[in-house]
Amino acid sequence: MRTPLDHTVAIRTGYWFEALCYRDAHDRPPELLDRTMLDTPEEAVRRIRLQIRTAHPFTLSPTEAHRALTWADGGGRIHALAALHRGETAGFSIALRGGLRPEWRVRRVAYLSLTPTPRGTIRICVRVT
Questions:
Q1: Is the distance from CB of 32 to CB of 20 less than 8 angstroms?
Q2: pLDDT digits (tens, 9 = 90+) for 56-99
Q3: Which of 4, 33, 76, 84 is the right S-S partner for 71, CB 3.0 to 4.6 Å?
């Protein structure tokens, strides 16, 4: 028999990560490749860097490969981290040889977190950023 659970409620700050792929400029909706909630801007940028390095180097033209790796290893990722720390949205997109356009986007969000607690105890924690 299931019994109801009490929960601790908290408003948390996280980083909503999405990786999308557009077939062309008029493609609606884009194909969703990846979507997750992350705890820090560093995790989000690390995820973009990993996906750029592992999924796309062989399908990029030399110019796009250089641009992607320059973003991943240099100023692009630093600017993205700074933007996320300021609460702004950050992202990056590239053009693959076949015309596909993968795009990565990250934005800071506030979300509600529910955690089971011992029966009879309800705690409400609110953190405003």
A1: yes
A2: 667 788 888 888 989 998 889 999 999 999 999 999 998 887 78
A3: 76
Contacts with 63 (C-beta within 8 Å, 6 or more apart), sequence order: none
Q: Which helix (H) or strand (E) holds 47?
A: helix 41-55
CA distance 110 to 87: 11
User: Facing residues of 117 across strands?
Assistant: 6
Neighbours of 90 (CB within 10 A): 24
Select from 116, 91, 87 the least CA-distant residue to 102: 91
Alpha-carbon span 83 to 48, nearest angstrom: 15
pLDDT of residue 129 exceeding 60 = no
Q: Can you tell me the distance from the alpha carbon of 112 to that of 8, in angstroms, rounded to the nearest whole number?
A: 10
User: Per the confidence metrics, is the pTM higher than 0.85?
Assistant: no
DSSP 30: P
Residue 80: its pLDDT value, please? 95
